[in-house]
Design a protein that fits this description.
This protein is of the alpha+beta class. The chain is built from eight helices and 14 strands. A hairpin with a 2-residue loop joins strand 11 and strand 12. It starts with 24 loop residues before the first helix and ends in an 18-residue tail after the last strand.
Length: 365
């Protein structure tokens, strides 16, 4: 009944079967793999008996759990070497004891250092997104996040990670994904403002509850959109303050371009000899700077004095005059394009067919 399908559904089998010889060897193996996995749901359950022993020593309670297989069920189809009925799990073989029985406990102690958790790999990060409820303390929110299986879906999670990498909030180090100084700084800034709801998974659970209310008819779509709009307006009305002593702030470098408030990103490139090169790039004004011992430096030191005039595009900023290979030209960071120099003033290049600074792709030139 298609009318009862409300979520993403799995493979739906049909009565059609592939004719013999129509599938390649790889296609046949994939087809048989799908069929065998689909059949598992019709096989008997995997049954086992679980035994738990609790005992106390000097007022401290300890517990050990063991498992004995009763019916191998579907696991016998999937794994021919699985445990047989009556066999115990060798990793957790428990002795036979009676309630109230006493005995001798042999204990030992080892001194070790606590290790920090390993950085996420791509697959570990996706797994953490699916089980994000483990990082939430509120029981209600934790239950809802567990019900919806975390943040995003298999169709959107890959793009979420790709955007974080593209914007410089994450970076790859071999197989691991680690947060950059820019990513940590963003979380610190948002966490200290009204936008703190954006750095916690609670909002996902709240919106999922709203979606359920819409599905049940308890809430209209228009009312939900209105709530979201009000929340966004409240967030953007609060100006973000960036204190100088914020963790990660000292490692970020501001753009060297006059009038640009962006932060530079350290970018890895390749030279003609395929060797790695490094430079700094500004996502705001798209300017690039050389890497000189880890410090951004302008690619060229202009000998002429700095000349600025109002931008002819009417953006309210000043355009700056430069001297290039074909003569003087102007640039304003309201747009990545350049302006022509006509009589010592900035002019939109398409208005002058014979511009002193040719621009590729401009029909006027």
């Amino acid at each position: 009944d298609d009318g009862k399908i409300t979520e993403h559904h799995a493979i739906i089998p049909t009565t059609r079967a592939p004719a013999a010889g129509t599938l390649s060897d790889i296609e046949r193996k994939i087809y048989e793999l799908i069929c065998s996995r689909y059949v598992l749901q019709f096989l008997p359950d995997y049954e086992y008996e679980e035994t738990s022993i609790k005992f106390s020593v000097n007022g401290e309670t300890f517990q050990r759990t063991g498992r004995t297989v009763v019916n191998i069920g579907w696991q016998g189809w999937e794994n021919s070497e699985a445990d047989k009925p009556g066999e115990e799990d060798n990793a957790a073989v428990l002795p036979t004891v009676q309630a109230g029985e006493g005995g001798l406990v042999h204990a030992s102690m080892e001194e070790k250092l606590t290790k920090p958790p390993n950085p996420y790999t791509y697959h570990a990060l996706i797994s953490a997104m699916n089980s994000v409820h483990q990082f939430v303390k509120d029981p209600g929110i934790r239950a809802k996040l567990k019900e919806v299986q975390g943040i995003g879906t298999s169709a959107t999670q890959e793009n979420i990670v790709a955007v974080l990498l593209k914007r410089g909030y994450l970076e790859k180090k071999k197989k691991q994904l680690v947060s950059t100084d820019l990513g940590k700084l963003l979380i610190n800034i948002l966490g200290a403002s009204r936008a703190s709801v954006m750095v916690h998974p609670d909002m996902t659970a709240l919106w999922e509850c709203k979606m359920s209310d819409i599905e049940d008819g308890a809430l209209t779509l228009e009312a939900f959109i209105s709530e979201v709009v009000d929340m966004v307006r409240c967030i953007i009305a609060d100006s973000l303050e960036v204190p100088d002593d914020l963790p990660g702030m000292a490692k970020l470098r501001k753009c060297l371009t006059n009038g640009c408030d962006g932060f530079l990103r350290h970018v890895t490139g390749k030279s003609k000899s395929a060797a790695k090169t490094y430079f700094f790039s500004c996502p705001s004004c798209h300017a690039k700077f050389n890497d000189v011992d880890g410090i951004p430096a302008p690619k060229k030191q202009w000998k002429s004095e700095v000349i600025e005039l109002p931008c002819p595009r009417g953006c309210g900023r000043n355009a700056r005059r430069f001297e290039g290979r074909y003569g003087h030209y102007w640039r304003c960071f309201c747009s990545p394009g350049v302006l022509n120099d006509v009589g010592g003033k900035p002019v939109i290049h398409c208005e002058q067919p014979k511009a002193s600074y040719p621009v590729k792709g401009c029909k006027g030139d």
